[in-house]
Every structure is written in structure tokens, then in C-alpha cells.
């Protein structure tokens, strides 16, 4: 029974969200699936193996960029075979909207020193690249032994910098995606797959 339901979910590429805005006022939002939970799981496993090979014999400090990276980091941390420490940063770009304005600041800093450590910044998505480039520069100045970056999703067509992550899960087109940590106005971070909102 459970297996049947899982199969149906796998082959039905939409997620529907029903909103109740009061008495008999409903809105139905359809999102098209871009990556099924199994695709993400498989890719995260491969990334974890690659990272474990590259950092063999060392301990790595995983730096998650809140909030979007929290699920990716949680899965990656459990699938690498090397010892890891975990810490988080939160960044904000001035100005509202879907796009980074370019002026970025740290609103929650690391609680761990990176000096002399092998550090891997964990991002959910690289869009313009401004966030990751800024964070990379800030952490590099604190003299880690090595500093690398991994992003589950990469949208190179949107890039405003020359920054390229060391490890990428999936290269995607310029679509607004949610799920697996990514949000739209703070909703849908808890979806297991990745969906496109048109
Ligand atoms: C998203 C994402 C990256 C950043 C990428 O974060 O998690 O951190 O944008 O954009 P960029 O490459 O154009 O700089 P967001 O600001 O949406 O915050 P969130 O992670 O809390 O959702």
C-alpha cells in the first residue's frame, strides 16, 4: 500500500497546495516537479562520496548558509564518511524582492573559528553568485586551511560574478524553484523534492 502510494507520487510530477483564505475562498497552486526526492537523494549521496574522497583523513567544518541550506546540509552531513563539525551563518542583502541587490552583510555569524580548518560552505542555490562570493571572501580572510563550496543547485545563466562552486548537485535553468530548503515567501521549504513555481 505504502509502496503503491510512493510509486504514484514518483510518477505524478505535480504538487498541489490548497490555500484557505476564509469562508469558501480557496486558491489552488500547482507546482511542477523539477527533481524528485529520489533524484535529490541519489545526487546528495554522490556529492557526499566525492567530498569524502577529496577530504579523506581530515575533519571538515560544514558551514551552512541559513535558511535555505538547512536540509541539504543535514542530509550531506549524515552521508559523508569523514568527521564533520557543523556551524551556520545567515546573510542578508539590502533591498527586498527575489533578487540580491548586491550589498550583502552577515546577520548571524559563525560561532566557531575557521582558522587553520578545512571548511566547506554549503549552499542550497547559487543564483547571481553574490552571496557566495561575499561569504567566501569574508571566511577566506579568517585564514582557514582550505575553503571550498558546495551548492545543490546552480543557475549559471543568472550569474553576476565569476564565482563557481567547487561542487554542484544540479545545474538548472532560470526558474523559480522551491522545496528541499528553498522557499517562496517562507513556504514550501519542507517539500522533499524540488518544484518550479511559474
Ligand atoms: C538564497 C539562497 C542563497 C542566495 C543565492 O537565499 O539560499 O543564499 O539566495 O542568491 P545569489 O547567488 O543571487 O546571491 P535567500 O536570500 O533567499 O534566503 P534564504 O536562504 O533564507 O531563503
Overview of this structure, please?
Helix 2 packs across helix 3 (70-79). Strand 1 and strand 2 (26-35) form a beta hairpin. The protein has a six-stranded mixed β-sheet, with helices on both faces. The protein has a four-stranded antiparallel β-sheet with strand order 1-2-10-9. The longest helix is centred in the N-terminal third of the chain and has 18 residues, at 37-54. Mean pLDDT is 89; it is low at 1-8. It has one domain: Rossmann fold (3-Layer(aba) Sandwich). It has helices at residues 2-11, 37-54, 70-79, 130-140, and strands spanning 14-20, 26-35, 60-66, 84-93, 104-108, 118-126, 146-154, 167-171, 176-178, 194-197. It is built from four helices and ten strands; from the N terminus they run H-E-E-H-E-H-E-E-E-H-E-E-E-E. Helix content is 25%, strand content 35%. With 198 residues, the protein is α/β, with parallel strands linked by helices. 1-O-pyrophosphono-5-O-phosphono-alpha-D-ribofuranose is lined by residues 65-68, 100, 123-132, 183.
Amino acid at each position: 500500500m505504502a509502496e503503491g502510494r510512493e510509486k504514484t507520487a514518483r510518477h505524478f510530477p505535480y504538487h498541489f497546495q490548497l490555500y484557505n483564505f476564509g469562508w469558501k475562498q480557496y486558491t489552488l497552486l500547482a507546482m511542477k516537479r523539477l527533481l524528485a526526492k529520489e533524484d535529490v537523494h541519489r545526487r546528495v549521496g554522490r556529492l557526499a562520496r566525492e567530498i569524502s574522497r577529496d577530504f579523506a583523513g581530515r575533519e571538515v567544518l560544514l558551514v551552512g548558509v541559513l535558511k535555505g541550506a538547512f536540509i541539504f546540509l543535514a542530509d550531506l552531513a549524515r552521508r559523508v564518511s569523514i568527521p564533520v563539525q557543523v556551524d551556520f551563518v545567515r546573510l542578508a542583502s539590502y533591498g527586498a524582492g527575489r533578487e540580491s541587490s548586491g550589498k550583502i552583510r552577515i546577520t548571524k555569524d559563525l560561532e566557531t573559528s575557521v582558522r587553520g580548518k578545512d571548511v566547506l560552505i554549503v549552499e542550497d542555490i547559487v543564483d547571481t553568485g553574490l552571496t557566495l562570493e561575499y561569504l567566501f571572501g569574508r571566511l577566506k580572510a579568517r585564514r582557514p586551511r582550505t575553503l571550498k563550496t558546495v551548492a545543490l543547485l546552480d543557475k549559471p545563466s543568472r550569474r553576476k560574478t565569476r564565482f563557481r562552486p567547487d561542487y554542484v548537485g544540479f545545474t538548472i535553468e532560470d526558474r523559480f524553484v522551491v522545496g528541499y530548503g528553498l522557499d517562496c515567501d517562507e513556504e514550501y521549504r519542507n517539500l522533499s523534492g524540488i518544484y518550479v513555481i511559474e
